[in-house]
Each structure stands twice: as structure tokens, then as C-alpha cells.
Design a protein that fits this description.
The complex is a heterotrimer of chains A (527), B (276) and C (346). In chain A, the strands form five sheets. In chain A, strands 1, 8, 9, 10, 11, 12, 13, 16 and 17 form a nine-stranded mixed sheet that branches. A four-stranded antiparallel sheet of chain A has the order 4-5-7-6, covered by helices on one side. In chain A, strands 2-3 form a two-stranded antiparallel ribbon. Chain A is α+β, with helices and mostly antiparallel strands. Helices cover 29% and strands 20% of the residues of chain A. With 346 residues, chain C is mainly α. Chain C is built from 16 helices and no strands. Classes of the chains: A alpha+beta (527), B mainly alpha (276), C mainly alpha (346).
């Protein structure tokens, strides 16, 4: 079963990984013999069929819609992936696997044309068979002037989508991109029948919609004609909206739900100490950062940026914000599980002397104002205050400006030169870098405009030779760590918790929380 | 104003509790052993010599936070109640003394305000306005003043028909004179009791707002914020998690005991009977 | 019962009743139906005024719907296209008339954020809210009136004091704190009752009642104190009046006086405080909904306020105000029926 192979990243311990496992181990010990997810997987019993799975998740809203174009949060991702499939998926090793497609390849040497061959005999919930035209219609749903889809950005480079055979889709891009297929695993790219209304929730997914009350709950029943035989074990899934963290834990502890998401790191040790509870982690799925706009003084000075990077005590932040979970960052937006992660770049320590040295070299500028609200990332206000204290030891004065949470993303982020921000880590290096570090990226939060960088990024995109590609990404990461405007102190795990009846959990690196939000079709209920 | 009834044991407990709260608030900087946001231990450590009530959800000294929280709670509740009373009493008395269309207009505007549910009003306003202490105090005061208006208008309306007030009005005294000299002194006792009730309500209301994330914003914390911060601990049976909620309850009980004692002679909860 | 206590008419009654000024009929001796019609008409006027206030209030909400809807995904193009789609360019007066016209016919328009028919989205939630409020009221009202009568019967005794202290403690516990305590005890420590009250249509009434028990209990704790105290005070107020004192002097038993003479005269303040508390059960339960994951109106409103979904905020505000006004009219009418003397105010 491909689901149950050990992710390759676990076999290659890095400094970070070791730190993390140490943290995991201590949590495990306090849990009194709770199994590690990795170890659990090796000796997992056979899947059990049947049962009613209940999920208690946050971020549901009564304004939610079933149309994948409008998904913004974990709750709808999880509901959406019960109903819809994507053309491709992320495997447990973070690499692409076929879902609705059986194969895919670049047909032009510069990777500007892609052909996807769909599996045959897949049926929508309404009985219609999946053909290429359905995929064309569903992807075009996110394109064009009028589209408000959250997936629009992923398909901007697409110039044409055509059904070239009954089960073959050809996508043409304005420029080559070896990573283009990764865009199709996005939460928004669910496939529905040609001409259909996505808000009806008709897809090819493992579960068929029974009832959907936005912001309250979704009820689905197993799709008897599901195309994947090694998934969808439970008979029905109920996804209940629980926005209050305490309510979620209470529901798990009292046995009302099987799985909850977003467990506070601080509650982790107490929760895992309870009998019958297992912790489900998705490692390093979010990065917390303090972007500096490199086009604005004093942040246009590399030495000042370096001074600030040395002046932040990352380990202290990890201890205080994440209670030792997650991992410390190295101002590198590529997460350590990514195949292109540059392992050889040494971790930047907290070094007050070096910080002072670079600060002096930059001319000891004043007016360093860090604008934060808890909207930037959870705990960013505390983090800013800790940063302020550690920087003060090098003679660097950081003025922490607290701004209202409301309107933070409109009025502060991208506007003020030094703020707090966070990103879900994207599945590929290209997606991550072109999202926030390409000159013309709309979310270029550090105003990073470097022609050479853009050229290399574009070159990597069309480079089909793995070794060369790896070298380019390596060089880009070195440049970012040494010169970039992103100060990335932390990578955060997504922590979910489940009843010990749940079997089959596999984290999906880069796919987000809850087995890449496909947890409903991945797990089973042990009697 | 009539003399207060003799002290009962319950009244003594209430007075003691309320006084302790005010002292905590007033002398917070001297009473708190640790700075309000200093991390001094692990998550939810049990009480020790250093942390008298144990530590909170991120390892801060709960006793210090409770002491500082008393100051925040007291300041906001007292300011909003005071403002509500200034506004409510003035308008209420004015409506009663002037009567006629002024009374009708003010009373109907007040009915209008009261028909908009309190929490919903606060929710909408606080969700969109900047979450500062000033806004918070103004919103709470506005909402409370409608209740104060109603009570003080009723009290004054009863007083206005009394002979000596009517005589004063006939004599051509200004409404200011009537309010200050005749109405206010005679309404003080029931209003004082109302003040206590409203203050207790303000404390509960503030803690509810903070609990919903609309009240006091971190890093400042009132008692409601402390309950919110530590609520997970309640599920795990953490002692520290019980304290902020219990503190609110005890304080509200104490204030109510004092109010009950003040109202003892009048039998009416709202104290509209004045010649006890 | 020919000589009523004077203190009742001018004291407690004006004191508690919210709409007394509005509702007081000028002409003496109106028939019950005329009074009802008059109060309904005044209620409608009030509701209309509230609609104006709500509309005006939501127009000056700062922040932009479009960017609030898109969050971190807001690009200028996406924002512009949404604004156009929502028709935000029309003048406010035009939008008010359209909105009011729709609201009168039960059409609250479509939500900005999910384009669903608001009336349809509100209906099941309103039903849930009313059901929870009704369940809490069914327990709390008889309980508190009973305790109030018991207290008044034994005024000053240990029974009176115990009831007083226990109910005082119940009101003094912040709702959210009481809610979590109940969950910690009944759900997490002992597996007696479910912690989450996420009701759905597929549940039978019995199942619903079970999951609603804890939120209901939390609400009962919150309202019992106020109603019990008011019942007690209203009764004691009547008991202190001269005609009751006469009856006492005549040697009639105290319990008989309470039931036969005092209670009917105390109905008005009691009914009014009950109405206030039921209104609170309907509109003030956001906290309980959050804690117990109960899909009612409050949670719905909170979600949409955060998204600047103006039509939803307007609709919910109007519905809440209407409920409040109706409850007050009902309370007024019950008072009048129970105590005909109120039809002839001075």
C-alpha cells in the first residue's frame, strides 16, 4: 500500500528533524507509551471497514460554500476533499501521485505543454462518467477576468486547456514550468461534471453529500462506486463545526468526535496524557515570518537585515510560542521536508555580537518599527516583544507597534515595511518561491526585486534535469538566507488529535493538516 | 438620604470582599510579586511559594495577573458605570422634570435603544471599531445608560408629583435647581443601590466581552481574559483555571450582598420606595 | 380585591416595564382588543425606527466587505469585481427602501459572503435558538417563580436566605465559566452528557433534548436568580400594603393571603421580568452557543459580522428587535388581563 510507506524525509535526519523528534519523544513519553505515528504505521493492523466517523474542526463559517473556488480554510478543505477529487494528489512523501489522472507528462521540451491522461471508468456521484471535458470545465472555473476563485493565481500562466481525447487533457502555458502539475493538487482544483453547479457538491469523491449546513455540519455517505479501492473505509462522515478550541477538546475527551484539528501546543502535553488520545502531526506546514520590505530604508541595507536576523532568538521563540513543537527557521522559505531543501546551509544562531557588528556596519539606523497584530501569526505580538528584548542586547531598538487585527491584511501587510506574516508551506519549491519572492508576485511581501533571482527561478522551472535543478534551488536559498528580506524564525507543525480508535493516519508533507485534508478517506475506525 | 440599616454578617462579608477588590486594584503595583507578563514557570504549575496560585497557560504567575487584572476590571467597569450614571441620571431626571414632549421624546429614544439587544449591539460595534479601552468604555456606558435612564426617570417621576417639588416648580425654580436640590438628594439611596447592581453587571458584561475576544485586548488582561486564557485547563482539572472565574463570581456576590443590605429597608430590589 | 396597593402601579410596574411610556393608553377604559391593537401599532412604529437605526448603523461600519471576504487573497481586481457584483455603488437611500420593502415581505436578500437566501439560512437557526430558549424557559420560569413564592412565604427565615444565596451564586457565575464547569464535570470527567450540542435535522426530538441539556442548564443558572428575586420582591411589596396587613390582622393564614390576594396583584412585575429574561434567552446566548457549538442565531451573526456581511447583520438585528418587542407586548397584555385595574391608569 503506497499510503503506508515511510516518508523519505524521516529517513534523512537533519538538525531540525532531530530537534523535532526529540520534542516528539518527550511528548510521547509523557503520554505513557503512546506510539509515534511513524512507528505506529509500521505495525498497523489491517484496515477496518464501516463505522460513522465524526470530525470536529474549526474555521467553519455560516458563509461557507461547497464550490471549491471559495474554500479558504481547513474545514471546507476537509469537506471538499470528501466530495471532490483533484487530477493529481500529493503522496505521503510529498511527491505527486495520480488521482483522477493515471499519467501526466510534459510534451514540450521546455515544459510549456502538459498532457494529463485520465483514468477510465470513474463516475461522478450523479452517475455520469468522468471525461476530459469535465476537467476542462472545472479548471476553467478558476480562470478568466470574472473569476473570484482562490485558485486563480495557480493557473495564471495557463493559456489554454483542451480536451484532446475523451480521457486526455492538454494544458498550454505561456512559459515553461516543470512544476506545473503541482498546481492541480490545490484545494480549489476539485473536478465536477461539465456545466454543473459546484455548490451542489457533486464530484467523484469518496463520499456523497447527504446534508450540508454551512457553519454547522456536513454529512456524507460512502460512495459505493469510488474508484480507489484502498481508501474510504468508513460508511459515513460527519464534519462538525467547532470553532472553540476548548469545545473541540471536550468533544474529543467525551467521545463525541473522533478527530479534532488545531490543538494548541500548550495543551498538547495535558491532552496526550489522557487515555485514549493520540496526537496526529503534520510537520512544518506553516511558516511564521517577519517580512522586511527591502525597497524601504533602513531595510534596504543588507547589513541591517543581517543584524536583525542575528538578533532574534529563534530557540526562545520556539520554546515560548510553540512549547518546543515545530522547528526553527533559517530565513529560508523552503521547509526541511522539501526535496530541494538546502541542508548544507548552516542554521543561523542567535548571536548578539554579530548582530551588533552588522548593525554598526549599517550605520546604526533608528526608526525600526515592527507592526504586529495577532492576525499576522498567532502569538506574533508576544514574539515581537521577545524579539524586541533580544535585539536590545545588541543595541538595536525595535519599536513594536500594535495595530488592530481587523483590516490587518488590507492596511498593514504589504504596506508597512516590517510586519508579521505567515504562509502555509506550498508543496513545491517553485510554488513557494514564486508565490512571495518573484519580482511581479502580487504577494511579494518583502518587495524582493532581483532580476538574477527571477531568471534563475524561471530557469529552474523549465529545467527537467534534477541535478541542475537542485543546484539552482540551492543557490536561490543561499541568496535568500544571506540577503533576503524574509526573517523566518519558525516553522509550525499542524497538530491534530484523535481517539485511539482511529487507524491509518498518514501525514502529507506540503499538503497541509489532516493527511492533506483527505483524512476522511484515509482513516478507519478500529472497533 | 436615609441612614443605612445596621450591618448584618452577610453585609460585612460583602463589604469586605468589595473593599478587598478595590484595594487589589489600587495597590496592584505593590501587591503583585511578578510583572504581569513575565513567564516564571511551566504551563499550569501547581501553587508554590513563588507563584501563590500557580502559573497560567503560558507559565505566568497567576496571582500577579489576577492582581493586575483586578485593576483593569475595576477601571473599565467603574469608568463605564460612572459615565452611564452621569448620562442616564441626567437625562432621566430631565425627562421626568420637564415632562411633556421632552419626556416622550427621550423615553421613546430610550425604548428604541433598548429594543436593540445589548450583546448584539456590542458585538457589531466592537467588531468594527478599533478595540481600544476608550471605545470599550463608551460602548458599555452607552448600553448601561439606557437602563439607568429608565430607573432614574421612574424614581424622579414619583418625586416630581410630591407636593414640595410641585411647589418648587410653581414657584418658578429652574429645572436645574429642582433636579439638584429636590430630586437628587431624595433619589440617592435607591440610585446607590442601582449603582452597585450596575457595577456588578458591568463586571460580568466586560468579562463576557473579553471572553468573546471583543473586550480587553492582550497583553492587557481583565478577569474575563484570564478565564479565557485558562479555559482549556478546566477540562484537565487544573486548579489555576478555576480561580479567575471564581474570583469574578465572588466579587459579584459580594457587591450584591452590599446592595441587598442597602435595600433591606425598602424591600424593593430596585429601591423605588423612598420613605422606608 | 377592590382596593389595590398604590405602590404597585407607580413603583415596581413602571420600574420594570420597558415600554410603559409607549404603551400607556391615554383614554381610560379601552377595551382589551383596542389596547392590543394600539400596542401592536406602537410596536410596529418602534420596529420601523429600529430598522432605520440598524440600516444607518450598518452603513457606517468601517471596513470593506469585499476585502474582508477575500482576506489574504484580496487582489485589487477581485475586490473591484465583488463590489460591482454586490451593487454597492447605489445610494444608501435607494438600498434602504429596497431592503425594507423586502424585509416586510420576509425577503432579507442574499448574503454577501455566500450568496444564500438569508431568510432560508436564518430559519433553521432561529428555530434552534427559540427551541433552546423555550427549553430553558420551561425549566427556569416555574422554578424561579416557585422559589420566589417559597422565599416570600418564609421571608427572613433560613429557607429564604438559602434560596437567596444559592440563586445569587448562580447569577454571579459568568455564563462561560459555568458552561465549562458543567462540561468538565458532566462530559469530560464522567461521560454522562455530551459536551457539544451540535444539533441537526436528522436528530429525533429526544436526541436533541439530550444534547441540549447542558447549554439549557447553563442558561437556567443565568436567569433563575433575577426572576426569583423579582418574584419575591413583588410579593413582599404587595404584602407590605395596608389591605394585606388588614387581612393579616384579621387572622387569615399567610399562605392563603399570598396565593389569593398577593399573587394576582404581583403578576404584572413578575410577567415583565419573565419577559425580559426570555428575551435575554433568545438574544443573549452567543456565549452559550460558542461554548456548546450550538447552531443558533448568535453564532450565525458573529460569523457574518466578522465578514462585514451587512445584509445578514441587518436581518438578524431586525429579527432580534422584533422578538424583543413582541415579548414586551405579550407581557403587557398578560399584565392587563391579570390585573384589569391597569386599564385605567391615573
Amino acid at each position: 500500500m503506497p499510503d503506508h510507506t515511510t516518508p523519505s524525509s524521516f529517513l534523512q535526519p537533519t538538525r531540525r528533524r532531530l530537534l523535532q523528534n526529540a520534542g516528539l519523544l518527550s511528548a510521547t513519553l509523557s503520554a505513557g507509551g503512546l506510539l509515534l505515528p511513524g512507528a505506529a504505521r509500521a505495525q498497523q493492523p489491517a484496515p477496518v471497514k464501516g463505522g460513522h466517523l465524526v470530525l470536529g474542526l474549526d474555521t467553519a463559517s455560516s458563509s461557507d460554500r461547497l464550490d471549491p473556488a471559495f474554500y479558504t480554510e481547513a474545514y471546507m478543505y476537509t469537506v471538499g476533499f470528501q466530495l471532490f477529487n483533484t487530477v493529481l494528489e500529493l503522496g505521503p512523501d510529498g511527491k505527486l501521485i495520480g488521482a483522477l489522472a493515471e499519467s501526466w507528462e510534459a510534451t514540450a521540451p521546455d515544459a510549456s505543454t502538459w498532457v494529463f491522461k485520465l483514468k477510465k471508468g470513474i463516475q461522478f456521484h450523479n452517475g455520469k462518467e468522468l471525461v476530459a471535458q469535465d476537467v476542462v470545465y472545472s479548471l476553467n472555473h478558476h480562470r478568466g477576468e470574472k473569476s473570484n476563485s482562490g485558485g486563480k493565481g495557480q493557473l495564471l500562466a495557463v493559456t489554454d486547456i483542451k480536451a484532446t481525447d475523451t480521457h486526455e487533457v492538454t494544458v498550454t502555458l505561456s512559459a515553461g514550468n516543470a512544476d506545473f502539475p503541482a498546481a492541480l493538487v490545490d484545494y480549489h482544483m476539485g473536478i465536477g461534471p461539465d456545466g454543473g453547479d459546484f455548490d451542489k457538491g457533486v464530484g467523484t469523491g469518496a463520499f456523497v453529500l447527504e446534508d450540508f449546513q454551512p457553519g454547522v455540519r456536513a454529512l456524507t455517505k460512502r460512495n459505493p462506486n469510488y474508484w480507489a479501492s484502498d481508501r474510504a473505509y468508513v460508511d459515513s462522515v460527519e464534519t462538525i463545526a467547532m470553532s472553540d478550541a476548548t469545545a473541540r477538546m471536550a468533544a474529543l475527551l467525551s467521545g463525541q468526535v473522533h478527530i479534532i484539528n488545531r490543538v494548541e501546543p500548550r495543551a498538547l502535553s495535558r491532552l496526550s496524557a489522557r487515555p485514549g488520545v493520540q496526537i496526529l502531526r503534520s510537520q512544518e506546514n506553516t511558516m511564521f515570518c517577519f517580512p522586511m520590505r527591502v525597497d524601504t530604508a533602513p531595510y534596504d541595507n543588507v547589513d541591517l537585515r543581517l543584524a536583525l536576523k542575528y538578533a532574534i532568538d529563534r530557540e526562545e521563540l520556539q520554546k515560548s510560542l510553540l512549547v518546543g513543537t515545530g522547528a526553527i527557521g533559517n530565513d529560508n522559505p523552503i521547509a526541511s521536508w522539501n526535496p530541494y531543501f538546502a541542508k548544507d546551509i548552516p542554521q543561523r544562531p542567535y548571536d548578539a555580537d554579530k548582530a551588533a557588528f552588522h548593525f554598526k556596519k549599517a550605520g546604526s539606523p533608528g526608526g525600526i518599527q515592527l507592526s504586529v497584530s495577532d492576525n499576522g501569526f498567532p502569538g506574533s505580538v508576544d514574539a515581537a516583544q521577545l524579539f524586541q528584548a533580544s535585539a536590545a542586547k545588541s543595541g538595536i531598538t525595535i519599536d513594536v507597534e500594535r495595530v488592530p487585527s481587523d483590516g490587518y491584511w488590507d492596511e498593514v501587510w504589504l504596506k508597512k515595511p516590517f510586519v508579521a506574516s505567515n504562509w502555509s508551506v506550498r508543496p513545491t519549491a517553485d510554488a513557494m518561491l514564486s508565490l512571495i519572492l518573484q519580482s511581479d508576485a502580487p504577494w511579494n511581501e518583502t518587495a524582493w526585486k532581483d532580476e538574477a533571482f527571477d531568471k534563475l527561478l524561471a530557469a529552474a522551472r523549465v529545467e527537467l534535469d534534477e541535478t541542475k535543478r537542485k543546484q539552482i534551488y540551492h543557490d536561490l536559498q543561499v541568496k535568500l538566507v544571506d540577503e533576503g528580506g524574509e526573517l523566518i524564525p519558525l516553522f509550525v507543525d499542524n497538530i491534530a488529535a484523535a481517539s485511539d480508535k482511529i487507524g491509518g493516519y498518514v501525514p502529507v508533507p506540503g499538503g497541509g493538516d489532516l493527511s492533506g485534508y483527505r483524512i476522511a478517506e484515509r482513516v478507519w475506525l478500529n472497533a | 438620604m436615609n441612614r443605612l440599616p445596621p450591618l448584618t454578617p452577610l453585609a460585612l462579608i460583602g463589604l469586605f470582599g468589595a473593599a478587598a477588590f478595590v484595594l487589589l486594584a489600587a495597590f496592584a503595583p505593590w501587591l503583585a510579586p511578578h510583572p504581569v507578563s513575565a513567564v516564571v514557570g511551566g504551563v499550569w504549575d501547581p501553587p508554590s511559594a513563588d507563584a501563590l496560585l500557580g502559573t497560567d497557560n503560558i507559565g505566568r504567575d497567576l496571582f500577579s495577573r489576577l492582581v493586575w487584572g483586578a485593576r483593569v476590571t475595576f477601571t473599565i467597569a467603574a469608568l463605564s458605570t460612572a459615565l452611564a450614571f452621569l448620562l442616564g441620571i441626567f437625562l432621566g431626571f430631565y425627562a421626568a422634570v420637564r415632562g411633556g414632549w421632552i419626556d416622550q421624546l427621550l423615553s421613546r429614544l430610550n425604548d428604541l435603544m433598548m429594543a436593540i439587544p445589548t450583546l448584539i449591539f456590542a458585538l457589531v460595534v466592537l467588531a468594527v471599531l478599533p478595540k481600544t479601552m476608550v471605545v470599550l468604555v463608551l460602548v458599555m456606558a452607552t448600553l448601561e445608560s439606557t437602563r439607568v435612564f429608565r430607573v432614574s426617570r421612574a424614581i424622579a417621576a414619583d418625586l416630581v408629583v410630591l407636593d414640595y417639588v410641585e411647589v418648587a416648580l410653581l414657584r418658578g425654580e429652574s429645572w436645574r435647581w429642582v433636579i439638584l436640590r429636590e430630586i437628587l438628594p431624595n433619589a440617592l439611596s435607591p440610585l446607590l443601590a442601582e449603582l452597585g447592581l450596575r457595577f456588578a453587571f458591568a463586571i460580568l458584561f466586560l468579562s463576557t466581552l473579553s471572553f468573546l475576544g471583543l473586550g480587553v485586548q492582550p497583553p492587557i488582561a481583565d478577569w474575563g481574559s484570564l478565564v479565557k486564557e485558562n479555559k482549556d485547563g478546566l477540562l484537565f482539572g487544573v486548579f489555576a483555571a478555576l480561580i479567575p472565574g471564581a474570583a469574578i463570581a465572588v466579587l459579584v456576590i459580594c457587591i450584591n450582598l452590599v446592595v441587598d443590605w442597602m435595600l433591606q429597608k425598602t424591600t424593593s430590589l430596585k429601591g423605588t420606595r423612598r420613605n422606608g | 380585591m377592590e382596593t389595590g396597593p398604590p405602590s404597585l402601579a407607580d413603583g415596581t410596574e413602571t420600574d420594570i416595564k420597558v415600554m410603559s411610556v409607549l404603551a400607556a393608553p391615554k383614554a381610560a377604559g379601552l377595551s382589551l382588543w383596542a389596547m392590543l391593537a394600539r400596542r401592536l401599532a406602537l410596536g410596529l412604529v418602534l420596529l420601523w425606527a429600529v430598522s432605520l437605526v440598524i440600516f444607518a448603523g450598518t452603513q457606517i461600519l468601517p471596513g470593506d466587505v469585499a476585502s474582508a471576504m477575500l482576506g489574504q487573497q484580496a487582489t485589487p481586481e477581485a475586490v473591484a469585481s465583488i463590489r460591482q457584483e454586490l451593487g454597492l455603488e447605489q445610494p444608501a437611500a435607494v438600498r434602504y427602501v429596497k431592503w425594507l420593502g423586502g424585509a416586510v415581505t420576509g425577503d432579507f436578500g442574499r448574503s454577501y459572503s455566500n450568496r444564500q437566501d438569508i431568510a432560508k439560512s436564518i430559519a433553521p437557526r432561529l428555530k434552534n435558538t427559540l427551541l433552546l430558549a423555550a427549553m430553558a424557559a420551561v425549566i427556569a420560569v416555574p422554578l424561579s417563580i416557585g422559589l420566589g413564592i417559597l422565599s416570600a412565604l418564609h421571608a427572613g427565615s433560613w429557607i429564604d436566605r438559602t434560596i437567596g444565596l444559592v440563586t445569587l451564586a448562580a447569577v454571579s457565575l459568568p455564563e462561560f465559566f459555568a458552561g465549562y464547569l458543567l462540561i468538565a464535570y458532566f462530559s469530560v470527567t464522567h461521560f454522562w452528557l455530551p459536551s457539544s450540542a451540535a444539533v441537526s435535522d436528522s436528530m429525533s426530538l429526544g436526541q436533541r433534548l439530550v444534547v441540549m441539556l447542558l447549554p439549557c442548564l447553563t442558561l437556567v443558572l443565568a436567569v433563575v436568580g433575577h426572576m426569583m428575586r423579582m418574584t419575591r420582591v413583588a410579593l413582599l411589596n404587595v404584602m407590605a400594603s395596608p389591605y394585606i396587613e388588614t387581612a393579616l390582622l384579621k387572622g387569615l393564614p399567610r399562605s392563603r393571603i399570598v396565593w389569593k390576594h398577593a399573587l394576582p396583584n404581583a403578576v404584572s412585575p413578575i410577567v415583565n421580568v419573565v419577559a425580559l429574561n426570555i428575551a435575554y434567552l433568545v438574544v443573549g446566548v452567543v456565549v452559550v452557543e460558542v461554548i456548546f457549538v450550538y447552531p443558533g442565531m448568535g453564532q450565525y451573526l458573529v460569523d457574518h459580522v466578522a465578514k462585514r456581511d451587512v445584509p445578514v447583520v441587518q436581518a438578524a438585528g431586525l429579527v432580534f428587535a422584533a422578538i424583543y418587542i413582541v415579548l414586551n407586548i405579550v407581557a403587557d397584555m398578560i399584565s392587563v388581563i391579570a390585573n384589569p385595574r391597569l386599564r385605567h391608569p391615573r
